[in-house]
């Protein structure tokens, strides 16, 4: 069995060794331009078109992340890149759920306990206790109730906040109110105090967090974008912050990454920024997952995490 590996920044040698140990029957190699030799599986992040093109014999392509929007964008531009018969898989959880939980719990509790306000008071050497939010009014709305959205819902539920989620199909998550489909989006937004985005980036979700959507949240709501920069219209967020409709935002992802030095988001006192690392690919967990998936595929089973290319996630 032959496996080809390509990632623009990961250390190829440690991935190749790690996969080789997990799959002793396989020969794993780093793909280089011009390598057209046979391969059964490909592990990739934003692969060059020529790496996958013409490989209709592949038994699977594994994306080395949870989101596959980069690969699907390339595929739209170069439909010849991936034969329709080749399944594309993505990482499901592999330790990203816990990382998202950490980020969301830290941020939401900080806003709930008004640490952002106290940080600003500190700049003014101001010793003043502020009125607390009421827990029952601090409704958290999660856009996306998939692997990561449901993880985040579970972790925030234990703090006693009302939790709701919005997805394409209805969900049954204990203690979480499910809204689904375009028809129920307004009901989901109405009464939401903290909006957390964990949607995939698809033609249906691009630009979804715009002025019109933000205006339907509670006045003084908070926004946490953990998914993709393309979901959020940054100028609309800035306008809503200026108008006081949105109190604060925490952003991990941006339309342009790295975020340009000239972006007004950098200097905004009520915007927190992290460099797209809310949940990173953990090599050991990811290799365990991919090795298991390859074994399942070799046994004639279809592993979890198959991307529906038409649906876009
Ligand atoms: N910032 C970071 O470091 C990271 C960001 N991410 C981002 O997080 C995203 C989510 O990951 P994950 O939870 O694993 O993805 P999943 O595919 O498991 O979940 C996606 C959720 O979004 C819902 N959804 C998709 N399209 C729509 C739509 N048009 N309307 C309503 N709901 C919709 C799905 O609904 P349904 O369940 O009904 O299908 C599902 O609940 C990734 O795509 C990636 O972009 C991921 C990892 C790290
Ligand atoms: O943003 C990261 C991912 O895995 O998707």
From TrEMBL:
It comes from Winslowiella iniecta. Belongs to the D-isomer specific 2-hydroxyacid dehydrogenase family. GhrA subfamily. Keywords: Cytoplasm, NAD, NADP, Oxidoreductase, Pyruvate. It catalyses: (R)-glycerate + NAD(+) = 3-hydroxypyruvate + NADH + H(+); glycolate + NADP(+) = glyoxylate + NADPH + H(+); (R)-glycerate + NADP(+) = 3-hydroxypyruvate + NADPH + H(+). This is Glyoxylate/hydroxypyruvate reductase A. Residues 107-278 form the D-isomer specific 2-hydroxyacid dehydrogenase NAD-binding domain. Catalyzes the NADPH-dependent reduction of glyoxylate and hydroxypyruvate into glycolate and glycerate, respectively. InterPro entries: D-isomer_DH_CS (IPR029753), D-isomer_DH_NAD-bd (IPR006140), GhrA_Enterobacterales (IPR023514), NAD(P)-bd_dom_sf (IPR036291). It is found in: Cytoplasm. The keyword NAD applies. GO terms for cellular component: cytoplasm. The lineage of its organism: Bacteria, Pseudomonadati, Pseudomonadota, Gammaproteobacteria, Enterobacterales. GO terms for molecular function: glyoxylate reductase (NADPH) activity; hydroxypyruvate reductase [NAD(P)H] activity; NAD binding.
């Amino acid at each position: 069995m032959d496996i080809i590996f390509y990632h623009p920044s990961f250390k190829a040698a440690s991935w190749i060794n790690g996969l080789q140990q997990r799959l002793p029957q396989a020969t794993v190699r780093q793909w280089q331009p011009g390598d057209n030799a046979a391969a059964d599986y490909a592990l990739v992040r934003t692969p060059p078109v020529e790496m996958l093109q013409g490989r209709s014999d592949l038994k699977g392509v594994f994306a080395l992340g949870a989101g596959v929007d980069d690969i699907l964008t390339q595929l739209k531009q170069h439909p010849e890149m991936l034969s329709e018969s080749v399944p594309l898989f993505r990482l499901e959880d592999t330790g990203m759920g816990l990382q998202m939980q950490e980020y969301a719990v830290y941020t939401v509790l900080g806003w709930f306990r008004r640490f952002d306000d106290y940080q600003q008071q500190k700049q003014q050497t101001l010793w003043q206790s502020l009125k607390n939010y009421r827990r029952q009014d601090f409704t958290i709305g999660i856009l996306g109730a998939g692997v990561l959205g449901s993880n985040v819902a579970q972790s925030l539920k234990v703090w006693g906040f009302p939790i709701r989620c919005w997805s394409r199909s209805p969900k049954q998550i204990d203690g979480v109110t499910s809204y689904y489909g375009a028809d129920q989006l307004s009901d989901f937004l109405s009464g939401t105090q903290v909006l957390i985005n964990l949607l995939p980036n698809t033609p249906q979700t691009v630009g979804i967090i715009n002025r019109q959507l933000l205006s339907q949240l509670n006045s003084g709501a908070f926004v946490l974008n953990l998914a993709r920069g393309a979901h959020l219209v940054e100028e609309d967020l800035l306008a809503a912050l200026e108008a006081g409709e949105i109190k604060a935002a925490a952003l991990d992802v941006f339309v342009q990454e790295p975020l340009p030095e000239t972006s007004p988001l950098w200097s905004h006192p009520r915007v927190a920024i992290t460099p797209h690392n809310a949940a990173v690919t953990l090599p050991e967990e990811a290799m365990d997952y991919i090795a298991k998936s390859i074994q399942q595929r070799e046994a004639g089973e279809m592993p979890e995490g198959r991307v529906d290319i038409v649906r876009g996630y």
